[in-house]
Amino acid sequence: MSFKLPSLPNTITDPAIKTFLSKYYSISNSPDDHDNYTNLFTSDGEFAMNDKKAKGTEQIRALRKAIWSHVPGRDHSPTQIYTHGDDQMDLMIYGEVSYKHHHGHETGVDWAVKMRLVKEGGEVKVGVYHIIVDSAAHV
User: Fold this and answer.
1) pLDDT tens track for 78-102
2) Phi, psi of 123 (to 5 degrees)
3) DSSP of 41-102, one letter per residue?
4) How far apart are CA 82 and CA 71, in angstroms?
């Protein structure tokens, strides 16, 4: 599944990061792809959404399953991606997400995330992913 990213800042020069970000949001929008999603993180990676926090593969998988149980569909659309200075592994991302609900209606909300990438065995992975989103938009 391919995912089109917004234009990236000139500070992101590594093609592996561009490919990774596209893969990340493609898998993130797949409701049942829990294993592939957790494989995008380091084994001690951190995922936080507001006050919900998970560390490590098993906790991230469990939290992702719990989050997906509330809505049958999500569509994340990053609209702006920033680096911390020239550090292309340290990102701030702003975007929109639309939720498809069990009763058939849709809602949407803006979100922001701090994403810290690392290279593990030459492969790009998420070390830290902290998202801020209005969780009331799930309703």
Assistant:
1) 999 999 989 999 999 999 998 898 8
2) -105, 140
3) EEEEEEEEETTEEEESHHHHHHHHHHHHTT-SEEEEEEEEEEEETTEEEEEEEEEEEEEE-T
4) 29
- Amino acid letter, 89: M
pTM metric for this prediction: 0.90
Q: Determine contact, residues 48/59, Cβ cutoff 8 Å.
A: no
Cβ atoms 111, 28 nearer than 8 A = no
Q: Which residues pair with 128 in a beta bridge?
A: 46, 116
Rg (CA), the chain: 14
Q: How far apart are the first and last CA of the chain?
A: 28
Distance of alpha carbon 133 from alpha carbon 138, whole angstroms: 10
Instruction: Give the sheet arrangement for strand 52-55, strand by strand.
Output: 52-55, 41-49, 123-133, 106-120, 87-100, 73-84
